[in-house]
Amino acid sequence: MAYPLLLNHWVEPLIQEAQSFRTEASLRLGHPVLSKVRVRLAEDPTQMATLAPTGAPYPKYAVGVAYSKLDLILLTQKLIHANSNHDLLEVFRHELAHLALEEAVQGAPVPLWLNEGLAVHLSRENAFARTQTLWTAVVSGNVLSLGEIERHFPDDVVGVPLAYAQSADVVRYLLRTEDQERFRSLIKRLRRGQAFEAALSDAYGLDSYSLERVWKADAESRYTIWPVLMSGTLVWGGAIVLVVLAWRRKRQRQEATLRRWAREEALDELRRIRIAQAKEPLASAGPDPVTAPEQGPVVNWGEANSHVPRVQHDGSWHILH
Question: What is this structure's pTM?
C-alpha cells in the first residue's frame, strides 16, 4: 500500500477491511480471490490523479477506482468538496468487489448490472438511501430494465442512484440464502468460459428477461407495503406518530367499552338474582298443602239459619230439632 505519511492512521483500518472482505467475497463467489491487491491512497482527487497508471483513464473527482487488469485500487481520503458524503471504507469495499469478481470469472465478460450490483451489495454502501430510491421507483412504476442498464448506464442525478440501487437488489435476489450455491455455480460457469445467458440458465433456470420479471415481482411484494418506513422526512415521521397515537386511542376506547359492557352485564345479573330471591318467600307463604286442614265454605249463620223453626221460652229463643 502506498500512501502519504499524514494518512498513516487510515492504513490499519483499510488492511483489516481488506482481510475480512476477502473472506466474505471468496465465500460468495465460491473461489479464492484478492490474494494480491495493491492500494494507493491519496489525500484528495487531485493527488489521486497523479497516482493513476500511465495511460489509464481516471474519472475526474472519483473517490475510488479499480484497475482490474492491474489488481490496483486508487482511493482518496477526502473529496474536494468538504460537504460531500464520503465513507472511505465503503468505497474501498466497492472497489475490492470489482477486483474480486474480475478474478473469480478470470476476466470473462459479465453484464454491467451484475458488476456494479455486486460491488454495491457487498460494500453495503448507502443502504437506506438505496432502499428509498428503489421504493420510489417500484411504487411509481419507473424501474429500469436490465437491458437499459446494460446498454447505457445512466449518467444523470436521478438515473445513477436508481441504476445502482436496482442492480444491487437484483444481485441481492440472486444471492438469497436458498440460492447462494446457484450463484457460485453461475460464477464457476463464467470462469470456465460459458456465455452469461447460458450460465444463468444452467444455474438458475432463467434467462435475463425471466430474471427481471421474477425480481420485479419480488420487489413489488416487498416495497409496496413500506411507504412510511422508507422515508426519513419530518412529515412521514409525524405521520407515524399520529398513526400510532390514533391506534392506541382506538384500542383504549375499545377496551373501555368492553369493560363497561362487562360491568353492565354483571349488574343486570345481580338484579335478576335479587329479584328471584325476593320472590321466593312469597311463593312459600301460606299453609302447607299436605298438613293444612281442609276448610269448608264460609257460612253466615245468621242468614243460613233464618228458616229453622225457633220458640221463645222464659225470654230466650230456642231452636227446635
Answer: 0.69
